[in-house]
Amino acid sequence: MSHAVGYATRSAKSRLGPFEFERREPGPRDVQIEILFSGVCHSDIHQARDEWGGSIYPMVPGHEIAGRVTHVGAAVRKFKVGDLAGVGCMVDSCRECGSCRDGEEQYCERGMTVFTYNGRFHDGMPTYGGYSSHIVVDEAFVLRISPKLDLAAVAPLLCAGITTYSPMKHWDVQPGQRVGVIGLGGLGHMALKFAHAFGAHVTQFTTTPGKEADARRLGAREVVVTRDPGALKPHEDSFHFLIDTVSGDHDLNSYLRLLRRNGTMVLVGAPEHPAPVEAFSVIGKRRSLAGSAIGGIAQTQEMLDYCAEHGIVSDIERIPIQQINEAYERVLKSDVKYRFVIDMASLKPR
Ligand code: NAP
Ligand code: ZN
Ligand code: ZN
User: Fold this and answer.
1) What is the residue-averaged pLDDT of the chain?
2) CB 205 within 8 A of CB 224
3) Over the stretch 157-173, which tens digit does the pLDDT of each residue have?
4) pLDDT over threshold 80, residue 350
5) Residue 269 C-alpha to ligand 1 middle, in angstroms?
6) Is the Cβ atom of 269 under 6 angstroms away from ligand 1?
7) 161-291 has which CATH code?
8) 3-state secondary structure 267-318
9) Ligand 2 mean position to 165 CA, how many Å?
10) What is the phi/psi pair of residue 66, to 5°?
């Protein structure tokens, strides 16, 4: 076992604070990574506060992990000591079912996807995430990171990046198509960057008037501030594809009606409460309402390589880990531009 230090929350109502725990010794196929940067995803907040139910405490959140390899097991082929490496939302799965063999480990049919934190290994031991000094992961679930990009700004690609890239690939977003991004936070700003990079005509929907200029800088052709009730109406029946990244309660029907015939709206945001869907929001134009969870390991590597080639990273605010509780409050106020990334050097005593 190796001694790890990090930040954890001990209950749904606690603040995060320092925590010490043990990680397994690296086995033959394991890679040990010194964590240099850890992104702060809204899912960390949902789970820390048990908004999805079933949270395991103490919880060390963090599934946007970027760092440097410090040890490799004897059978490891993809990595050597000193390489940059990333870990996203998953650290293992059954690897044998149809979905796992298709490289979509997040949809493991045996329910054996092991999440990076707030999950359990196959032996029942809890997993601890990236708000920590180091992590030990089977190389099959470790991603290669190009040294061309700013490592801190790469970290959010491991969740916010792949979660928005994957559905746009699945639904085959094409140049010239009308794409709408709902919510301009961590996921939303990556969705905007990817849709723009894929050549779509992108409209950003935001509840925050102050984000309009940023949305245009990030690639939006139009920005719709959704505060006023009539704002969506003029855009009805016009979109091929909508990606809903909103973390809180909102009306789905007014967005569904923005889709043109055969259009799809995919939910990636995962609010705590269910939202009603009117049949007539989807019947009229044969619209589809869909969902999507992160992305498989192979596609995550494809996305990272695409980002290296096209110079795409997240827009980040770096924080020391001591500011994590304040950062959560700012995320909840939609006040993040556009991802907090913890500089893990702040964990070390000075
Ligand atoms: P975030 O940075 O907080 O962004 C969410 C944005 O949604 C906010 O910045 C805000 O944008 C908008 N928003 C928040 N509350 C709203 C409300 N009540 N009504 C309308 N708009 C609202 O969060 P994130 O890290 O991007 O995550 C977004 C959601 O995706 C979370 O629920 C998270 O758990 C989920 N998620 C899902 C997956 C997956 O695999 N499907 C992966 C990662 C995260 P504006 O200021 O522009 O309105
Ligand atoms: Zn996430
Ligand atoms: Zn499986």
Assistant:
1) 97
2) yes
3) 999 999 999 999 999 99
4) no
5) 5
6) yes
7) 3.40.50.720
8) ECCCCCCCCCCCHHHHHCCCCEEEECCCCCHHHHHHHHHHHHHHCCCCCEEE
9) 13
10) -130, 135
β-pairing verdict for 222-225 and 259-267: unpaired
Do 64 and 134 touch, CB atoms closer than 8 A?
Answer: no
> How does DSSP assign 105-151, residue by residue?
GGG-TTS--EESSSSB-TTSPBP--SSBSEEEEEGGG-EE--TTS-H
Q: Which ligand places an atom closest to the C-alpha of 42?
A: 1
CA–CA distance, 21 with 2 (Å, rounded to integer): 8
CATH architecture of 2-159+315-346: Alpha-Beta Complex (3.90)
Residue whose CA is at the smallest distance from ligand 1 atom 18: 248
pLDDT band for position 48 (cuts 50, 70, 90): very high
The predicted-structure confidence for 300-321, as pLDDT tens digits, reads as follows: 999 999 999 999 999 999 999 9
**Distance of alpha carbon 115 from alpha carbon 159, whole angstroms:** 12
Torsion angles phi and psi, residue 43, rounded to 5: -60, -30
Spatial distance between the Cα atoms of 92 and 141, rounded to a whole number of angstroms: 6
Residue of the CA atom closest to atom 38 of ligand 1: 268
The amino acid at residue 78 is K
Residue spans of beta strands (DSSP E) within the chain: 2-8, 17-23, 30-39, 65-72, 84-87, 90-92, 114-115, 134-138, 143-144, 178-182, 201-206, 222-225, 239-244, 259-267, 288-291, 316-320, 339-343
Ligand 1 atom nearest residue 246's Cα: 7
CB-based contacts of 208, cutoff 8 Å, min separation 6: 184, 225, 334
In angstroms, how far is CA 1 from the centroid of its own chain? 29
Q: Exposed/middle/buried for 61, CB within 10 Å: 0-12, 13-18, 19+?
A: buried
Token couple for 313: 């990273």
Q: Is 166 in the pocket of ligand 1 (CB under 6 A)?
A: no
pLDDT at 7 over 90: yes
Residue 202 in tokens:
């992108």
The bound ligand whose nearest atom lies closest to the alpha carbon of 314 is 1
Q: Where are the domains of the chain?
A: 2-159+315-346, 161-291
Residues with CB under 5 A from ligand 2 (ion): 41, 43, 159
Q: What is the C-alpha separation between 324 and 320, in angstroms, rounded?
A: 7
